[in-house]
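User: Continuing from earlier, I have the next pair ready.

Assistant: Great, send them over.

User: Here they are, in order.

Assistant: Folding the first of the pair now:
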Amino acid sequence: MFGSGNVYALVYRILSNYIPILRLLPTKQNRLIKEASLVIDEVTTKLVQDKLNKYAKGELDNNKDLLSNLIKSNHEEGLDESEKMDFNELKNQVNILKFLSLSFFLFF
C-alpha cells in the first residue's frame, strides 16, 4: 500500500516537527519546501506592493477584497503611527489569510 519512499518521507516529516534541526539537512524535501517558500514570498510581496501602489494612486476605492480593506483601514486618518502596519506586517497578514483559507479548504 505504501511505497518505501512514502514511509520514509512521512517519518522524516514527523521527526522534523520534533527535531527542527532536521530541516537544515540538504534533503530533496527540504529543498522543495525552501523553493516553495521563496515563491510564496515573491507572490505575496508582489501582491501587497501592487495593492499599495494602487492605494497611492487612489485606485482602491471600489475594491472589496480583504487586502484592499486592510490597506485602506491601515491608512485611515487619526490612526496613530505606532498602530499602523508596515510592509512586512501586511505581508504576514496575507500569508495568514492564505494559510487559513487553505486549511479551511482542506478541512471541508
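And the other member of the pair:
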Amino acid sequence: MCGVPRGSAPWMNPRGCFGEETIHHALKIYGRYREQFLRYYIWQAKWTRVPAIGGLVRWVANRYGQTRHAAYLLTPAEAAEVVGLAPDLYIGLCSCRQVFHNCDHPVEAEIMLGKGHNPFVEGRKGNYRRITVAEARDVLDAARKRGLVATIIKCNEDFYAICNCCTCCCVPMRLRNRYGIGRALSRSPDIVGEFRAWLAAPG
C-alpha cells in the first residue's frame, strides 16, 4: 500500500507503486502521508459492499496485496527470529491505533526494520528511536501477552516493519476480516526465509 499516482486508489495500480527502481521513494511518500492513506484504505474498502462494483474492487485489492504490498502473519518464534536477523531496529507509534483509536492497546508497538536505512525512519526521524534486539523481543512478548498478533509488512520486495496488530484498528486485519480482502493479510510458510533473502539482496 505504497504511494500511488494522485487520484487513483492504492490497489487500482496492480503493476506496482512507481516502479521497482523507485520503491524507496514510494515508501518515503507513503510514510510521510501514512495517516491519510490508512483512512483512505478503509474508505475505499467499503466499496466492496456495493453490489455493482464490490466484486471488482475486492479482486483488484486482493491482486494488489498478492503482488505488491501486504502484511504477513508471524508466529512468536518467527517474529523473534526476524528481529534477531535485522541489522537495524527502531520502535515507533502504531499508525493504525493513532488514527482510529478503537482500543487502549499500547501505541508504541511498531518495530521498523532496516538494513542500513528505512524510508519511514528517514522521513520522520523524530518519531522513531533505535532499539536493541532484546528490547524488540520485549515489545513482541508484551504485545503477545495482550493478545496482539505480530505481522511483517512488505512492499514489492522490501520488508520494512513488524506490527503488533489488534483486530479493531489494524487496517490489514480489517480489510481481511470485514471486507474480504484476504491478501491484505495472509500467511507465508517461509516468511523468515524470504526475510533472509531480502537481507542478502543488494540495495
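Worth noting for the second one:
The chain is about 45% helix and 20% strand. Confidence is low (pLDDT under 50) at residues 3-23.
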